[in-house]
Amino acid sequence: MTAQPIHFDGRGGDRPRPVPPMPERTPQALRLAIQEHAPHLLPDFEAHWRRAIADAFNLTPVPAFMRLWWTQYAIARDPNLEGHLRDLEARAAKSEDAQESAALLAEYSRLRRQAAAVEPGR
């Protein structure tokens, strides 16, 4: 069994809540996970689905769609990671040192790649 990250649920602030596991790697399972654990993403997910996939006769865009939303959900389900990524992005934007900005953005990119690679059930 692997350890799951824990964050506090904000209701009373003292009850740890594990980060929910990743769903099966299907559009339906991902949509249900977003609906349950990251509902703020659902309108954009559904709009993107309708625009890119729903009326298409070609399934070529499905892998790119899944990779994008898999990554978005992997980040959104973990408030600590989501906050850290926002902080890295903001610090990079404000930095006047090009090397510092590059290092912050490299860390941001590394964490997004890591989120994209999370397997179902993790």
What does this structure look like?
The chain is mostly helical. Helix content is 61%, strand content 5%. The protein contains five helices and two strands; from the N terminus they run E-E-H-H-H-H-H. It has a two-stranded antiparallel sheet. About 6% of the residues have low confidence.
Keywords:
single chain; 122 residues; mainly alpha; two-stranded antiparallel ribbon; 5% strand; DUF6247
- Please mark out the parts with pLDDT under 50 across 5 or more consecutive residues, or reply none: 6-12
- Please state the average pLDDT score: 90
**How many strands?**
2
Summing up helix and strand content along with how strands pair, one would put the structural category as mainly alpha
State Rg: 16 Å
Major sheet size, sense and barrel closure? 2 strands, antiparallel
Note the run of SSEs as H and E: EEHHHHH
Number of helices: 5
Widest sheet: strand ordering: 1-2
Number of domains: 1
Kindly report how far apart the N and C termini lie.
10 Å
**Shape summary:** globular
Fraction in beta strands: under 5%
Question: Helix fraction?
Answer: 55-70%
Summarize the structure.
With 122 residues, the chain is mainly α.
Annotate the secondary structure layout.
Layout: E1 6-8, E2 16-18, H1 27-37, H2 42-54, H3 62-76, H4 79-94, H5 98-116
Helix pairs in contact: 1-3, 3-5, 4-5
